[in-house]
Amino acid sequence: MGGKNKQRTKGNVRPSSSGKAAELLAKDKGTVPGFVGFGANQNELGYVPAVQGLEEVDSLVDADFRMVLRKMSKRDATTKLKAVQEFGTMCKVKHPETIKGALPYWSRIYCKISMDHDRRVREAVQQAFEPLILQVKRNLAPYLKSIMGHWLIAQCDTYNPAASAANVAFQVAFPLNKQSEAVAFCKEEILNILYDYIMKETPETLSDPQCVPEEEREGKYLRVVTSSLLALKKLLDLLPEKETAALKDRLMELVSQSKFWKYSKHKTPQIRSAFFELIIAFCLYLPELMKFEAARVCPAVLLNIDDMDPIVCPSVWAAALYVLTCIEDCWAHVNAKKGVLPKLWAVLQEGGRGLATFIYPSLLPFISRLPEEIIGSKIEFFTMFFSTFSKGLLSERALMSCTESSAIVSAFMECLRFTLHQNLGKAEDQQKLHKMLVNEQLLPLLYSAWKYPKLQASTFSQLADTLASWERRTDNPDTEEWADAYKRLLPDFWVGLSQACMSRVGNPEADKNSLEGVSFLLRCLRNLDSATKQSVKKKGKIRFIDEEETENHDSNATNHLEELTFITKNALASENLGDTSRHFQDNHPARTVPLEGLVCELAKLSMTFINEQNSEMHLTFLSTLVSSFPSRKLFSILVENDNSGNAESFLEKNNEVKKIASNPAVQFLIQKLLIWVQESRTDLSFLVDMLYSVFHCCCNNERRIILNQISEMEQGWLILSHIIQKACVDPVKYTAISDWLKGEVLGEKLVLLTDKLCTTGITSSWPKDVHSHSWVLLSLALSKHINNEFLIDEVYIERIIERLHKALSKDLSKDPSKTGALEPSLSFICDLASNFFRSIKGCLQMLSAEDLLYTIFQLCAQSQEKTHLTGEVQCYEINL
């Protein structure tokens, strides 16, 4: 009894009592009975040899291998999983000759266990296969025909990790140039296995009904059928053309059976998807087979284009396109008007039901294959086609997803361009079709985009691409007839677009979003890149707080400056910046002229609202127009019939200004822009953008005169701070005023400003927000470093630092107790110094900078009882 409690010998190499019986039987009879792996017959796949006499064990199968092979025959999934994993481990460490002994039995077990119900087991089997292949190499060849069919099925497993592992093993076994040869060697055996699984097997034949639950049997059957259909597609993909032809008769037998075509309506989406994938392969490699079965394949595919299961949808639409290409008379086998088109209208009207990215790219090739007899009346057909398109675009799902709506808009434009191009004649019905497409389909799409801002980026950029396509065709000498047709089409479009924009801007009930939509459209039409430009996403990273502060400051000082190194040396280098924007000049004349005319009309309309109703949103809209389309013609229109004298003082102060007043841009500045600036608006940003548009139409000397005169105005420092802030983040704006920034006038004024601020600040206490824009301007001058240069001339930087140092050291060193009363001004000075020292490398080489830092250090070294500074300011100084 006690013997049963002893630890079993590892590997079971010590025979049990049954093993002794088998050994005695072998000695007596001279034969060894087989034991049941999956069956007692050696011809069955699961056969594993029994233990023979101890002297004969090594000649058959290694004892360790024999043990794990026996475990693989168990029903328990965990036991099988551990056995397969152990088998893979042994294949890595055992001698290749030892592994070869197990090959006959592994190849039999593989075919069964690779289709196990437990996905973990299937994955482990493929993972164990790879080290075995690496060890046995060419010795696997005799067993290829028996395993290749199941190997291909495993590569198409519905469980991706298992399929991936099988593919890896296949790649290890056969280089890419040898794979087709290996599959061709086993093609008949593979096809026999796949045929049986697709056409003959049932849930009951694949699994034992007495041992396996019904749900498990059904699941395995569905998976095996799906994998077999995909494996057959993979077989056709891998086989050379000659080898594929050799299987034609056998495949003809497959497609001639009704059961095969019923898979197109199977309740399981995976099977339907695999079926349509196989149809694609048939169309590619055996088109004659599909033509022979056209009466079955056409309805099976074309009548299922409304299958909205996300698994099936991509496959069925791809199959539809292949069938339309492969079978010339495919429409003769389906009722298009009653069967196919109603399904298409339903899909389009619902916006693809969340599958627009799969469906809509297929629409252009789909309608291009529609014959005239199916289309019938083109106006009726395409009215229905594009109307359902538009309804689908406005469906809830499409509006919620930018990806979905972009796919719909892109397909809409593609189909519209194709339809127009296919009907470019002068016939009356073709002219009616043109007008319908532009006025009833394209322009309403713009109204929808204006109503729903999420649609604007994709719609406007696609429209710009469409216009570019039409404009290129007007210059094609090889197709004169087409060129004439597009020359007639473009003016009609611009008339309709102008009416739409004018009515939108002139609508008394127009809101801010309406005007922004129009301005966005015009910018996209001006520059093809404006709608599609992607912002660069900054990489996230973990950092300490002190590092974050430093990096934030550095980014404020230098992030945008890196852009300036990429600006071309010729950008804005000429004396005059030009009459129109550089991008606008690059456009086709067929676009430049009507677009410029539309902008001028919209600007005049906006001026009417500004003058009569003092409309702030129309002023913002006008700012966008002027910023995007700066030209002397536009400024001339804005100042015509306007002799405003409200800005006469600007003219009288400087004779130089009078000399440049003939420039329409300068007239607009004097008569309009400066008046709007002086109206104490809270937001000057859009007005400063307009000022830069004025600069765009001025030469260097004119810009210098204007900026000098602005600095003399009552609100001069406030305006200049906005001008310089924009120049620091925009390379084009910086180049426009860089000469003036380095000039004597600004430098001297900043030095005087420093004296003024330090004098009033150090001698008295005043509210923190007084002259705050002046402190901001000084901070910009000290902290910005562009193209390795100071924003202003370095001489003025030193003088400003000297003024700050003198202001701190003059009175505070005599009476430290007064320091607390001067806390606001000290905060500003410390802030200026902090920005300077942190952003400018090598700044301590300036003697004045070193003195300033030393003075601040002395102030920090004094006790809080003497200086009466708050803890917050002291901490700030210490950080500095």
Automatic annotation (TrEMBL):
Domain of life: Eukaryota
Family: Belongs to the LTN1 family.
Subunit structure comment from the entry: Component of the ribosome quality control complex (RQC).
PANTHER family linked to this entry: E3 UBIQUITIN-PROTEIN LIGASE LISTERIN, ZINC FINGER PROTEIN 294
Protein name per UniProt: E3 ubiquitin-protein ligase listerin
GO cellular component, one term: cytosol
Catalytic reactions of this protein: S-ubiquitinyl-[E2 ubiquitin-conjugating enzyme]-L-cysteine + [acceptor protein]-L-lysine = [E2 ubiquitin-conjugating enzyme]-L-cysteine + N(6)-ubiquitinyl-[acceptor protein]-L-lysine
Gene3D superfamilies (UniProt xref): Leucine-rich Repeat Variant
EC identifiers of the protein: 2.3.2.27
Pfam families xrefs: Ltn1_1st (PF22958)
Pathway membership, UniProt: Protein modification; protein ubiquitination
High-level lineage: Eukaryota, Metazoa, Chordata, Craniata, Vertebrata
The keyword Transferase is annotated on this UniProt entry: yes
